[in-house]
Amino acid sequence: MKIHEYQGKQILAKFGVRVPRGDVATTPAAARSIAEHFGPRVVVKAQIHAGGRGKGGGVKLAQNPAEAAQVAEKMIGMQLVTPQTGPEGKRVKSVLVEEALDIARELYLGIVIDRAREAVVLMASTEGGMEIEKVAAEKPDLIFKEYVNPGTGLLAFQARKLAFKLGLEGEAFKQGVKFILGLYRAFEGTDASLAEINPLLVTRQGDVLALDAKMNFDDNALARRPDIAALRDLDEESPLEVEASKYNLNYIKLDGNVGCMVNGAGLAMATMDIIKYSGGMPANFLDVGGGVTEEAVTNAFKILVGDPDVKGALVNIFGGIVRCDMIASGVVKAAKELGTKIPVVIRLEGTNVDLGKKILAESGLAFSAADGMKEAAERIVGLVQ
Amino acid sequence: MSILLDEKTRVVVLGITGGEGTFHAGKMVEYGTKVVAGMTPGKGGTKHLGVPVFNSVSDAVAAEGADAAAIFVPPFAAADAIMECADAGLKLVVCITEGIPTFDMLKVKTYLKAKPVHLIGPNTPGIISPGKAKIGIMPGHIHTPGRVGIISRSGTLTYEAVQQVGRQGYGQSTAIGIGGDPVVGLKYIELLELFKADPETDAVVLIGEIGGTAEDEAAAYIKARFPKPVVGFIAGQTAPPGRRMGHAGAIIAGGKGTAKEKMDALQAAGVYVAVSPADIGAKVKEALSR
Known about the structure:
In chain A, 37% of the residues lie in helices and 25% in strands.
């Protein structure tokens, strides 16, 4: 799960990680009063779940509270387009208004899980403000890493090593070590999957602060982190994806026009692949789960055809323990309720497959049953073209 | 022969008294698996599905000689269950549970380092040695005994592969789902090592997906040290970057872990790569006909 920058900074502050003074505003008047309190010079930052905000005009310096209000007026309600949002952009609902600081150095500090090493890794770099993937590709010797033993957590000497490698001295070294240890505590204490401070700021006075903060969280841990789960912003997600998540369905909208509904994530991806291989483009990823019920199938089918881009649907179910007749009933029920007109090809395999095919044939709907993934994909791609 | 699991393996089922545990333990017994005990803390001394239930795994080991486990407990209890099995000295632990936090698995993997245990999963359909035994939730009837090994990160896609391989006339020695999470127990290389040593496995099907680097590591291993033919398929060739495709581990992050990258690595290692998922069975035939 993703959150906004201001929410990330509030979490960091709780763990003793220093962030610029400021607050979030949803009106120009509120932006002005925050600037009066922490300014007069402030930075106004659009709050959306996408990076590259500066490039789209979503980060502006204001010299005084009146200017902060003007900037906020323009930003709130705008469709902000960044390299990560897509051409339609994202609507800005709120802005973060923060004190402007004297920048001496911009560094990088990130924490992720290294899957190959099976450990949490801290990555620090002197090349702040750049994308870390770019630094890794071009100047890998400027990225310093420390792996964490989950039993002990991050150790103080590891934080000191990173601070020395970043060239921090005196007051900045002291604050840097505290910052690194605090960021790790925030990462572990919230079951984060990513904590990225880019840039990590060193001021002329030797203060070390998080100028930006990006945090993502492990979806599997949200049930034990209710305070984190409460930070979810449904406006940042596609409406169909929000609807799907209510029924525990994994749905992701894509660019094509062949909708697909599959049981199991791997088979769902493979179904998308074979649609493309057959000359079409998948409209979505939709995994109804291994232990699928008739109700889940009905809801999934409704979400699938609820996408106006979908011109035809492919249902691919490998029954196994799940019964094919139950799947067929669920799809027929949903299609009848919705009065579905688009072509639907269904591939059923496994337990009670003949009974499932019979239900489809007798439904009176224009469904066609296919044997095997290849035949199913080729047929639906032919029908939508 | 088979790897890790056969008809002599003695299984304790953790969470046997729950709905899922009851259903699948029953199916395992039907298939011929030697389920010798159940474990649910607080229900020790009772019987379920005709086997004794114990309060701890070590009690099940002492009383029934269990040497393997199937775990069907809720996500936040699963890490503890895996470590309890390792502590009790089990050789094989299969964790079916989906939704375990990654941090919990990091602790599990650190704990397991000093123990002689094989962990399969979590978030896996399990392991089956056709005709002998299964520990997991896969439908037994689609499998046939034979000489092809299968290793996969997926559930139903594995069934698809099993069926395709079966229709070409080949059975399976052992089929293993390694799990769809970012941090899992045994991965491709450890299992390939076991298949290499198994004289009754002639070829291996390796089914991967986007995210992480496990397939790339497997490709390097195959190239250097695996003499038997390998057929590969990578799911997610059309998956967009930055989105989690159902499995917690199936995500292209920072431009890394794409299907193309993995397919290229496997191809370069001499693996018979199926571009279409419908060609997995045909590729096995091609590999074994050479």
